[in-house]
Structure formats: structure tokens, C-alpha cells
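Our consortium's second objective concerns turning raw sequence data into structural hypotheses that experimental partners can test. To show how far this objective has progressed, the report includes one record in full. It was chosen at random from the queue rather than selected for favorable results. The single chain below, 256 residues long, was entered without modification.
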Amino acid sequence: MSFSRRKVIQLGGQAVIWASCGATLTSLMPEEALAIEWKALLGIKQRKGKAKLIELDGTARIGNEELKVGQMIANGQLIEADHEARLLLSMPDGSAFQLSGPAQLKLEIDEKGGGVLELLLGGLLGIVLENRDARYLVQSPTATAGIKGTVFYRERFGPDSPPDPRIPEGALEYFCICNGELEMFDHGADKLMIKDQAEHHHAHMITQKGETLELVEAKFLYGHDDFAINRAIEAMGQKKHDRSWLKLDEQEADGY
């Protein structure tokens, strides 16, 4: 069976269509060795790492407790951010993740960095430092992304997500490789479905039509831009991600 610009891949019982509109987009057959390497992160139990809340704009909570700057967040706790809230978490390896509300996130991280972030709702900007020992899986109900040494943005849409005419009906997620490389797997990280890279933003949306998930290239930035990335890097500790690729001119920072 042949397809023009599209390739159907079986994901569990669903057909997944990866659609390319002319930009660099590489669809791969499952690579078992790589999938096993990443899937091993999901199998680690009783992680002891903690994240530190280093910035907070708006209100976020764990249960009934409102979060405060400087607070340490343990694994397994559900972080909930209100509408328009923004919080920046520092990981043990110096990497940083910025959660934008309305949002829900759970952490399972290691003492030296790396681990699993479960994004249930909202936007997540990740700034992952180059570190062989600190690899992150960002999991959602739709798919799982393997991240190392990369700046990326991912948003899981919900009923209260702000409306945007660029987001089509049936869209489940938006994600962007801002700078670096990203490997996308099925939800359980059993099969490698796509490997993509970018020097300055390459975005996609995951939409659903019936029982079919479709990955469509997005020609716009959503939920983040170069200014937001620069602010997050500025707030990081002594270890900072390279910023030479950022375009901080007014006319370029919010586009490709």
C-alpha cells in the first residue's frame, strides 16, 4: 500500500497517520533497541528525585495546598495550575520545565535528573540540558516523547483550553521541537513512530478523526515563542542551555 506524503502505522489497535506538508519530517519503522532503551525509564520504581519551584506567576496547587516559590515537589503529586498561571520547575540536573495553565502535571524524576513527566493537561516548555545520564520521557494519554539535550514545547488540550482559530476541531495536542531532537513513541513507549529535529522550531498537531490519529505539521508557534524560552533560560541556575539559536528580534521571535 502506498501513500502520498502520508504513512499509516499501527499503534495498538489504532491507525496513526503521519502527515508531512513539505518540511523535514522523518517517519520511522519501530526500532526495538531504541524503544527498549526509553521504555526502561517507565519501569523504574521508587524514584527519589524532587523538583524545585523557582518561579510562579498566578496560582498553582497540590491538593488544597497552594504552591510557593522555593518549595520542593516530590514525585507522584498532582500539580494543578490555574488558568493563565505559569510555574517554572528546576530539576536535579539543572534542566527546567515551565508549566502553563490550566494544566495538570505529575513527576517521577531521579535524584540526579531524568525520569518521567506525565502531562495530563496544559502547556509544558522543556529546557533539557546536554547530559547523558538525564533523559526525560514526557508522557500524555496520546503519546510519549523521549527528550535529551533539547528545547521543546508540548500542549495537551482540554475543554477549558483557550480557543484559537488555528487549532482544528479534534486536535488533541500541539508539540514543537524548538531546538534539538525529539523521538515520539506510542503511549507505552513500545514503538518508535517518529524522530524529528530542528534548529529553530518545527511544530505539529495531533488530531483525531474517528479511530484515527493524524499528525499534521503546524506552520505556527502556539503557547511559546523565543522570548518565553529566553526568559525561562535566564531563570535557570548556573547551568544554562545554549541560546545562540534564539531569534530575539521583534519580527522573528514568534515565528519560524
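The partners drew two points from this record. The two ends are 34 Å apart (CA to CA). Residues 5 and 20 are 6 Å apart (CA to CA). Both points have been shared with the crystallography group to help prioritize constructs.
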